[in-house]
């Protein structure tokens, strides 16, 4: 069948809207008619060569839509079901079998290579293959071919633009607090960066009843939004050393810290703001893949520090996405405060608006 897709043909270049050919669903696959898809930093990083994805490619990995057809053996969803689409995992490795699919031993292959188990590639144009199956979905298109394992049935009455970003950015930030670090009620948390992931972490911290939630963020509008979402303090790093500002609020230092920046100097400022037996969660991907942690062995020993690397907020999507949707329904997880919608065909305008810092989480919607 044919679909309209935003094809990435060259690094650092605009997406081009093109008609492509999409295979029908094979065993274990699910064809989804897209309603909405979020734009995540990873889509652009992959386009620009930071991840091993061959161009031309169709990115997009925060999809929401309606199941159009299912391949042989699919029982989890049926045509007509509304689904959110998340990252792909194999379901059979040790990580998947123990409820940690974001650490799937086959994660790189399933999410970046664009190749099915039988070696075929589902997207093409005029006989030339286009890399698809990005995060098991390539959902910057009118139709997405996903896998039974990475679709999650969601209620039909939810706005698609709120479901879509849960599949990556929102579950990553919320999961970091609610699952990876499992922040204690009454504890203190420091979050570096008030982008959509950092703000989802703030919302997760409110759910976990953290008593002190401090955000470090250079942009005033984002600091204001962090406070509106439940942060107790929002620090401007330009005002003075972060550790001094944090210790003016929590003298002994914070129990938990989360980095969404991937910047070693920021991580260093978090470590200097922490108390003993504290936990540091790392989410941000550094621009330099060789970047090392700026922590001395002595600092780690003296603090009794635990450092936790976090992928997708340790989400088990079949469990965690419905949990976040219920929290949204209860008015305790206002995803809408993060989202700005754009028509799907305006994808390049959406990317530019995010780049200029005008929007937090652009979500493309199909008319
Ligand atoms: Zn696995
Ligand atoms: Zn993402």
Summarize model confidence as the mean pLDDT: 96
Number of strands: 18
Q: Count the helices. How many? A: 12
Strand content: 25-35%
Shape: globular
Which stretches of 5+ consecutive residues score pLDDT under 50?
none
Ligands in the model, by name, code or SMILES, are: zinc ion
- Give helix % range: 25-40%
Q: Compute the gyration radius: what is it?
A: 20 Å
- Largest beta sheet, briefly? 7 strands, mixed
What sequence of helices (H) and strands (E) makes up the elements?
EEEHEEEHHEEEEHHEHEHEHEHEHEHEHE
Strand-pairing-aware structural class: alpha/beta
Distance between the termini: 20 Å
Features:
six-stranded parallel β-sheet; 367 residues; binds zinc ion; alpha/beta; single chain
What does this 3D model show about the protein?
- The chain has 367 residues and is an alpha/beta fold.
- Helices cover 27% and strands 26% of the residues.
- It contains twelve helices and 18 strands.
- It has helices at 41-47, 94-97, 107-112, 160-163, 169-180, 196-207, 220-228, 242-249, 264-271, 297-303, 317-329, 347-355, and strands spanning 2-8, 16-22, 29-38, 57-58, 63-70, 82-85, 123-125, 128-130, 143-147, 151-153, 188-192, 212-216, 233-235, 254-259, 274-282, 306-309, 339-343, 361-365.
- The strands form three sheets. Strands 3, 5, 6, 9, 10, 17 and 18 form a seven-stranded mixed beta sheet that branches.
- Helix 9 links the parallel strand 14 and strand 15 (274-282).
- Helix 5 (169-180) packs parallel to helix 6.
- The chain is globular, with a radius of gyration of 20 Å.
- It binds zinc ion (2 copies).
- The site of one zinc ion has 8 residues, from helix 2.
